[in-house]
Structure formats: structure tokens, C-alpha cells
Amino acid sequence: MPTRIVSHFKTNIYDYLEALPKTTLEKLYEEPATCLAIFRLLPSIARQLVMSLLFDKEGISKNDLIKWIKNDKESLDKFDEAFDKLTKLQMIEQNEKLTLNESFRYSFQDCLTGCGSRQSFGIPLEKHKSKPLDISLLDQYAIEKWENILHFMVGTEKSNVPSASVLEVVTKANLMRDIGGGKYEITNKGFQFLLQDVNTQVWAILIQYLDIAGVMLNMNVVEVLNFFFMLGSLELGQDYSVEGLTPTQRQLLDDLENYGLAYRRKKGSTRYYPTRLATTLTSGNAATVSSNVNIDNTDAGEDSATEQGFIIIETNYKLYAYTKSQLQISVLNLFSELQFRFSNMVTATITRDSVRNALKKGITAQQIISYLTAHSHPQMKKRPSLLPSTVKDQIQLWEMERNRLVVQECYLYKDFKTWSDYEMILKHATKLGVVVWSNESKKMFGVTEAGHEHVRAFIKKKMAQRKSNGTGGNDNFMGNGVNRSTPIGYGDSSNSGTPAR
Amino acid sequence: MVKAVKGVILKCDPTVKQVIYKLNEKERDKFQLIIEDLDENHLFIDSSKVDYIKTEVEKLLEENTYKSELLLPLNDK
Question: Which of A157, A246, A446, A457 is the most buried (most CB within 10 A)?
Fold first, then answer.
């Protein structure tokens, strides 16, 4: 389960890019920084392919391309996957021969050879002009801003309400929901969001921002994406000039400050600094981890326990969390009863009420268990089963307890004259796949609301047939055996055209 | 003659079924809650009473849940 939760951020941005229309992608590829960023997101085989095709104007046939791949199933599968990705991103054009997308090829060539306009990678300002900004200050700023959003989500008491644009994004993304009176509540999706690493979170928010930017803020999606990707290629601690940014991108910069992705000494300043959150956007995992540590602990790097896991649970539902992070404590508070707080740990109990509170918010038992598993203390990992099974089972039982009643709207068919009537109509309804419940001895069955019309029509048709056959009216509905064979035969043939389910 | 009745099929465990029966008894003068007793785990009921049943069942089960006394003072804080 944890693997699903920590799904990689790359998949998010892939999905987004793949869904873009071809013209938008073409425009994106005009920007060298964007090409580099997208290239970095590709799987390694795809990167190989791009590099091989980069300086090849003539193109190459797909069969020749496959010859470069090791001839076993695993490698070929990987090739297919990579090829599929490249095609979906419109990076490969398939005519008689395969070539790279023209604008991508030119921009990426420029990017690697260092030709073309420098602006694509931001305009760094001269170093000695002003005294350089301390990187730790930048980190602190980013952490503060980002944690503020997360704090707000988990509902820490002292947290400030983030700016309106941030609020807009979190509610649109369904991470929080407006419960009226200017109050917001975390949703099931929001909890899932909290479980992910920072990089994934940043991307999730940015993608949501993109959606809003296109529709509501009238921003050009291409410019926004270009800016995101450019940020990913900037250098931490360097200051960059806002010159060369389009008006849209300047507006964007204001918003990104709210998320702690960019920093300016004062509003309207012509220089900006990308923070660690921004510069690790498109890079590998190593950077992610180091930023993760800094973010999770307010005291950067001092204790790395948070990263390794810090929660110990006993079979008596007592929970000890070795953390100082206000954020982690707030997350715990979502589903446990906090008891004591010490300088480096908190104790809590998992109770029926606390779990039910979480469940009411839409957080699932599985999510709680995944969270506990993912953050359990190394000491816990020595045990054969990670979490005490009593606790794990009980949390699930508490969830089941809330669903003791399963309700389904339906129509109940009853008072069948004969068993054969019952059987025939039930058989028809089963074929349609609309039966919710049936009982032979009572000669009753229930069908879904959607199925009711069909079943009723079927019965009416049978009754009309009966009448025309002259074997009596409703009283004698399906009463005698002679008659039975005809309707069933008829029923079968009429059913053959109906989709079964 | 075949009849089709609109309503709600309620799937529950036998315990909850008994609770609903108790409710039915209590409100017998006012309205009919249970239209048909289907089997051990299923009841056929009036669809307009679903919310009522849900809250009542919740309340009753809540009353019958053991709560650790040890934790109570702490919860109050």
C-alpha cells in the first residue's frame, strides 16, 4: 500500500503533458529550458532514444531503432513503453522514418550546445553587485511558506490562513472543503496529499494551479509551464532578473512567492531567488530527500529521525512519536488523542472516538494504517509484523462499524402466483444484471431502480401474450405448464439482443 | 398478481436488525418502518425513513459501546 501512496510526482506531470494538445506541446518545445526539463523526466531508454535521434535529420526506421535494444522481452517491453511515451508527448514524429519533433530538436540542440538565447534559463545577475543571499535563509523562507499551507490543511491552531490564491487552489484540488463561515476542513484526498513527499506535493499543487491559470486567470498555459520548467533549471542561491519574463510570468512569480517557491527581498523587486522547492522540481530524487529532511523538521538536519520514521505503537493502542515537528504532531492529531508533549516526543492514544473523527472526515482506515506503517520507528521494523495486529485490525473494525447499514434503493417484486412465474422473471432480471436480492422460499426479489422499467415491461409483455393466447387473464398468469414453454422460448430470443450487464 | 413495491433494501447484521425491530415497535403507532422482513441480513423498508433509522441505530450502538474510563479525564481537557 505505501508504494501506491508515494506514487512518483513524475507520473502526475506526465499525465498532464500527455493530455495537452499537439499545438501546445509544439509551443512548449520552442523553449530550450522546457525541453531539458521534459527530457529529464523521461525514463532512461527514452532519453537514449532522444539522444541518438537528436542530430539525425534524416530519421531512422522503427525496425532499425529496435535493433539497438537487447533482444529479450524485458528490454523490448521497456522500449515499447519509452516509445509510447515519446509518441504521446509528440516528441517523435512517425512518417516513413522516425524523426524528432522539429522544434524540440532545434531547442534541445541549442540547450546542449549552449547556443541560442540565454534567457530560457533565466538571467542571472552579477554576483558582486549585491551581497549574496544565505542559502539557509532561503530554505527557511521556503519551509515557512510551504509548512504554513500544510499546517493550515491539518488545522493547526496557530496557523495563519494562506493567501486567497492558495486557498483557491487547495479547494479546487479537493484537498480541503469549505464548511462555511470561512472555515475549511481537510478531505480524504487532502490526507493522502499529506502522506506524499514534498516534491510530489509541489507538483500536485502546481498542476492544479495550471488548471486554474488557464481557465480563471486567463494565463497562457505554455508560458506558465515554461516558467515552472525554467525554475527547475535555476541555481539555488543565485539571484535572477525579472527582465525577460512575460507579464503572465511576472504575475505567476507573485503567486509562487505565496507557495515559497520563489523569494524576493521586497515586493516589486526586480530580482528573484528560486528556493530549493523550485530548483528540485525536475531533478532527481537525491535533492528531494535532502529538502524533505529540511522541510519535515523545523530544525534543519538536526535530527533525521522524521525521515526514517518516528512512531512506536504498542498493542495497548498507545502511540509514541519521536518528533518535534508541529506538522507531524498535527497530522497525528487527526486520528489520535494527544496526551503529553515532551521536548522530543509526544504520546497519544488511538481511541475509538479519535479514529471515528478521522473517518468522519473521509480519511479511510487504510490511509491511517499506511501512514503509521510508512512512519514507523526503525525499532518497530525489527518486529515480524510492523504494526501490532490488534491495533491494525481494530482500526479496520472501527471503520466497518460505521458501515453496518448498507442501503440500496430498489423495487421489491412479490406475490407471484406460481413458482415458475417467479423463476422465469427472476431469470430475466438476472440476465439484465439488476437483481439486488432474491429469496426462493418467499418468492420475492428486488431489482435496482434502473432495472425496474425493463422488468416491468417484460412482465407486461408476458401478460399480453398470455391474454392473446386465450389461456386466461391475470388470475391465471403463467398458471399452466403448456403455456410456459412459449414465453420462456420467447424470452430467451428477446434477451439475446440485450446487453447482459 | 405480481406486485412491485418501491423502497429500500437494507443490508445489515442480525444485531442491527433487532435494533431496527425495536425501533419499529416503538414507532408502530406513528408509521410503519419495516415493509417486509426479507431474511436474516435484509430488511425492506420505507425509503423516507432511512435517515431516521441511521441516526437512531448510531445512537443506540453508541450507548452500548464501552469507553475506557482511564481516558475520560484526559479527553475533557
Answer: A446
Three-state secondary structure call for residue A187: coil
Q: Which residues of A touch B42 (CB under 8 A)?
A: 437
Q: What is the pLDDT of residues B27-77, one digit of tens each?
A: 878 777 888 888 888 888 888 888 888 888 888 877 877 766 555 544 444
ipTM for the predicted complex comes to: 0.76
The pLDDT value given to residue A313: 92
Burial class (CB in 10 A: 0-12, 13-18, 19+), A124: middle
Within-domain flag for B33: yes
Residue B19 domain-assigned?
yes
Architecture, CATH, for domain A410-495? 2-Layer Sandwich (3.30)
Give the span between the Cα atoms of A55 and A57, in whole angstroms. Answer: 6
Q: What is the predicted pLDDT for the residue at A132?
A: 65
Find all residues with CB under 8 Å of A371, minimum gap 6, and list them. Answer: A195, A331
Q: What is the mean pLDDT of residues A110-134?
A: 68
Number of independent structural domains in chain B? 1
Q: Which residues of A444-480 are buried (b: 16+ CB within 10 A; e: fewer)?
A: bbbbbeebbebbeebbeebbeebeeeebeeeeebbbe
CATH number, domain with residue B31: 3.30.70.1220
Task: Give the residue among A305, A300, A326, A302 at the shortest CA–CA distance from A380.
Answer: A305
Record: contact B75-A353, CB cut-off 8 A: yes
* Crossing angle (nearest 10°) for helices A247-259 and A135-154: 70
pLDDT, one tens digit per residue, over A455-498 is 888 888 888 888 887 654 444 444 333 333 333 333 333 333 33
Greatest CA separation for chain B = 64
**Structural domain boundaries, residue B24:** 8-76
Residue B1 lies in a domain: no
Picking from A351, A401, A437, the nearest residue to B38 by CB comes out as A437
From chain A, pick out residues whose CB is under 8 angstroms from the CB of B6.
410-411
- Looking at chain B from residue 25 to 64, which residues have their Cβ under 8 Å from any Cβ of chain A? 35-36, 38-39, 42, 44, 47, 50, 53-54, 57, 61
Strongest mean pLDDT among A111-115, A149-153, A340-344 = A340-344
- Whether B68 is covered by a domain: the verdict is yes
pLDDT exceeds 80 at position A214: no
Cβ–Cβ of A407/B9 closer than 8 Å? yes
Residue A114 phi/psi, 5-degree rounding, is: 80, 15
Residue of B nearest to A402 (CA): B58
Give the whole-angstrom CA distance, residue A85 versus residue A92: 9
Q: Which of A436, A439, A456 sits opposite B39 (nearest CB)?
A: A439
C-alpha cell recorded at residue A331: 497530522
**Cβ-based interface (< 8 Å): residues of A facing B:** 337, 339, 349, 351-353, 401, 404-417, 421, 425, 436-437, 439, 442, 444, 446, 452, 455-456, 459, 474-475, 477
Contact status, residue A263 vs residue A257, Cβ threshold 8 Å: yes
